[in-house]
Design a protein that fits this description.
By secondary structure, the protein is α/β, with parallel strands linked by helices. It has a single domain, classed as Rossmann fold (3-Layer(aba) Sandwich). It has 4 helices and 4 strands, in the order βαβαβαβα. A 4-stranded parallel sheet has the order 2-1-3-4, sandwiched between helices. Helix 1 links the parallel strand 1 and strand 2. The longest helix is centred in the middle third of the chain and has 14 residues. The mean pLDDT is 92.
Length: 105
Amino acid sequence: MATTVLVLGLKSAVVDEVRERVALPDVDIRGGTNLTDLRATLAATPVDHVIMGAGLDLEDRLRLVRAVFEASDRTTVHMKDFASGPEGFAPFVRAVLTGLHGTPP
């Protein structure tokens, strides 16, 4: 059974880049940029992990975390640091997923 991951970023182009760069077996990466996207994905399918980029406004990130925990008791949430910049997003996503699932990089 595939692991479903929702990657949330400030811009859809950043999320699309993560999808292209982080292709792991049995991992279905979905994308979004806001609370509406998060809620739609959670309503459509069980999500194992939500990974957020640092470009999202802090208040938005807090709303997203709250929405995940209100909607699911099985979804984990991971937030990237700001210091590594946008170029650090794909490596962060890969590191989280390989750490959680033991998939080789």
